[in-house]
Amino acid sequence: MRVSELAKKASVTAETVRHYTRLGLINAERDPNNGYQLYDKVGLQRLHFIRQASELGFSLKQIEEIFQQSDSGDSPCPLVRDLLQKKVPETKFKIAQLQAHLVKMEDALAAWEGMPNGAPDGHSICCLIEEWEGTK
């Protein structure tokens, strides 16, 4: 199947297919008659795998490592478990950071509610941010 057909079947863009091909995550053969890239069912299977792994938070580099282990005949499952076990606390930490950031944003909005809009006067850019005490 051609790039557009594979993209449609995998619910991704044609550029995504080309990008993964350039990275070596999926492989294509060239049609000798017209030079088009042709993909087989393995390409579709890999595209689905990439999407699933991405949804779990795996990077393309990590997905490449998983493919390399699988392609060499070794089970990548221990690697996948290890990577995900490391990702869970990292993700929890990021969520905590985002929640703290959200609190700051909500505090700023609440503090600014009664403040007037100021015009730049050469000494001030935006009085809302400059007078906000969340960073002090």
TrEMBL record:
Name this polypeptide is given: MerR family transcriptional regulator
Database matches in SUPFAM superfamilies: Putative DNA-binding domain
Extent of the signal sequence: none
Domain HTH merR-type: 1-69
GO MF term (any one): DNA-binding transcription factor activity
PANTHER family membership: HEAVY METAL-DEPENDENT TRANSCRIPTIONAL REGULATOR HI_0293-RELATED, REDOX-CYCLING DRUG-SENSING TRANSCRIPTIONAL ACTIVATOR SOXR
Keywords in alphabetical order: DNA-binding, Transcription, Transcription regulation
